[in-house]
């Protein structure tokens, strides 16, 4: 069901109580010095002015600071973040910020969609009736900025002028949030009105850290009001909970693409990267993976890195699928980031090149060096982290060792600090043409490392079927869960609506060059593929990502044939052998290939059964998904009857074809 815009009470406007532009302007100006008054005069959108005025009336700051994103304002942000203690200096001119121990990831149980009566949302999301949210916001936000400065930021989700970009206003009292936003989003201060005009809308975000403390963590809330494209965040600082352009507005952007863009746009939890293929051609890949499953590392394997978290896609008039990254920086997990697996990122993080970096929730040693689990150096003996002093052997109250850094500790830096970032293309409103779409999860025992859908419907179903082990990005999450399109935490509406829009997009006649759609999985374990029972060692290495992406690059350009199987097209051994050698100089054995690409029919069938059952709970689910699941299951059962439950590539060729 289409989310109805401007339905119900707009909470901030109602609580602020201002109804005229004049009143709003007067109140805003009364909190501005001359410089800020002048900066604010650039903004003409009446809707924006009224809404900002109401935010001021609600939060009652002492004064207002307008972020024009000038060099002086960027420096002002850095300075004030240090002055107010939200950040402190570490080595290499970098800074560090600590979130509360309870606020180390997205607070999923305290995150809600504000809904009107009878509104459908995803069965996997939490909702709260508008009036309940209204009362909580009133309690938490009224006068919350007394004695503080309100910072007003005008940022864009995407390059200014891009078809799928939408401007946003972010209001916050946190300088850490402003500083992070400066690094992560292009400014649209100068072009705000024009962007509102072009996009037809803007997102509005309010954050206050309020009376922040561990004792008050129960008061933390992250609210998304879909009807008014407005977010409210309070009593927390973790960027995923507070820098609402990221996941808060991504959710609105998903609504926008799903319901309002004629099925010509998608808003995805995907990296974007380019691979250079034979003859120097460049092929762009957009890939979905759940939080904490290696999206950043995968993106940086490309020769032309564009983005590591989000993708706004659209069908261009020339029939290509194009994508922009709504961000210009990285808010990346540092756990296991080291020189071997992430050489470009490490150059920036370790000060080999000049870069502006904000660390969060890492360990800082006495000499100011940021340290984290898996950074590749000799572990430190002591330091301080978000829990205070840390020393080797420190245990919690249950006697469990406390790691030196949180598994979701992060680094925030500009894309331009990464050697293979293609800044020219990343900032181009025309986007990059996408020829490969990938979907991946943290799957230890079921799907092969790479397989390609035979058509758009099957491609959408690969995305619908992602399963993944929980990661540290969500507070309190555990177990293996469904992660449809790796976008599930950010899909506000029913999954059936989202699926229908994906099917319409990828089957559109307007697309002249259909991207290939593939599953990717580099989390298979030795134990699950006939090795030592229970071994969780990876069947392969982190650097194998490059050959998998390179094979897809070749496949998208028609250079390689494949095996036609029940689940899609699989690579041939000889092609992979050559690609492994060429890209990472690795001898790829046929034995390893057979482990990687044998189909484990029982596991795949179990997965199909689980997904079928889950989607049967969704109202109005497009029937094609059930048709595909049942056809795949039938084909796998036939294979199993003939060959047993593990079917080798040679056997797949025997019944299929190696010429697909
Ligand atoms: C993720 O968890 O997917 C992130 C970081 O990209 S957050 O901002 O928390 O969403
Ligand atoms: Mn993410």
What does this structure look like?
With 660 residues, the chain is α/β, with parallel strands linked by helices. It folds into 3 domains: 225 residues, 3-Layer(aba) Sandwich (Phosphoenolpyruvate Carboxykinase, domain 1), CATH 3.40.449; 290 residues, Phosphoenolpyruvate Carboxykinase, domain 3 (Alpha-Beta Complex), CATH 3.90.228.20; 86 residues, Phosphoenolpyruvate Carboxykinase, domain 2 (Beta Complex), CATH 2.170.8. 32% of the residues lie in helices and 22% in strands. The chain is built from 21 helices and 32 strands. Strands 11, 12, 13, 14, 15, 16, 24, 25 and 28 form a 9-stranded mixed beta sheet that branches. The protein has an 8-stranded mixed beta sheet with strand order 1-6-7-8-10-9-4-5, with helices on both faces. Strands 2-3-18-23-17 form a 5-stranded mixed beta sheet, with helices on one face. A hairpin with an 8-residue loop joins strand 6 and strand 7. Helix 2 packs across helix 4, helix 5 packs antiparallel against helix 7 and helix 14 runs antiparallel to helix 15. The chain is globular and about 80 Å long. 55% of the residues are buried. The model has no long low-confidence stretch (mean pLDDT 96). It binds sulfopyruvate and manganese (II) ion (MN). Manganese (II) ion binds next to loops. The site of sulfopyruvate has 9 residues, from helix 9.
Give the low-pLDDT segments.
Answer: none
Number of domains: 3
The amount of beta strand, in percent, is 15-25%
Which ligands appear in the coordinates?
Answer: sulfopyruvate, manganese (II) ion
CATH fold category name of the largest domain: Phosphoenolpyruvate Carboxykinase, domain 3
CATH architectural type of the largest domain: Alpha-Beta Complex
Got a strand count?
A: 32
Tally of helical segments: 21
Structural class: alpha/beta
Query: In CATH, what is the class of the largest domain?
Result: Alpha Beta
Helix content: 25-40%
End-to-end CA span: 39 Å
**Shape category:** globular
Largest sheet: 9 strands, mixed
Average per-residue pLDDT, rounded, comes to 96
Q: Whole-number radius of gyration?
A: 25 Å
